[in-house]
Amino acid sequence: MEGGGYAGVRDVTMLPPTRDDTMQSFWLAETLKYAWLVFAPDDALSLDTHVLNTEAHPLRVLTRPLPRAVRARLPRRVPRVRRVREKHDSCRMSAS
Q1: Distances in Å between the alpha carbon of 85 and those of 28, 50, 55?
Q2: Each residue of 34-51: pLDDT tens digit?
Q3: What 8-state DSSP symbol labels residue 66?
Q4: Does 74 score more than 80 pLDDT?
Q5: How far separated are the first and last CA of the chain, in Å rounded?
C-alpha cells in the first residue's frame, strides 16, 4: 500500500528512508498487545493479579508462599521483594 501501513526502515541515516518489506515478529507479539491493553476495558487484565514481562506476556502473581525446598534455592535478596510488595499494599490501602 503506497503511503500507508507499517514498515521497518533499513537505514535511518538515508533520505528518503528505504523501507523494509518484512514484518518483525515482535510487532504483533508485543507492540500491538500493549496497544490493545491501553484501549482494553479495565477488567480485561487485573494488574493486581498479573504482571507483564518485557514481551508483554501476562504472568500471574504468586499469592501463596513457595514451598520450603524452592525457597532454599532462591538467592538471599528475595525477602526484599516481599518488603516492596508490603509497602505497595500499604500505600494502596492508605489511598483508599
Answers
A1: 32, 13, 23
A2: 888 888 888 888 888 888
A3: P
A4: no
A5: 50
Q: Is the preceding peptide bond at 16 cis, omega within 30 degrees of 0?
A: yes
Residue 67, amino acid? P
AA identity, residue 19 = R
d(CA 54, CA 48): 18
Question: For residue 85, what are the contacts with CB-CB under 8 A and spacing of at least 6?
Answer: none
Q: Which residue has the cell 507499517?
A: 6
What distance lies between CA 45 and its chain's CA centroid?
A: 12
Alpha helices in the chain (DSSP H): 25-26, 32-39, 68-73, 78-95
The beta strands (E) that lie in the chain are given as 8-9, 19-20, 50-52, 58-60
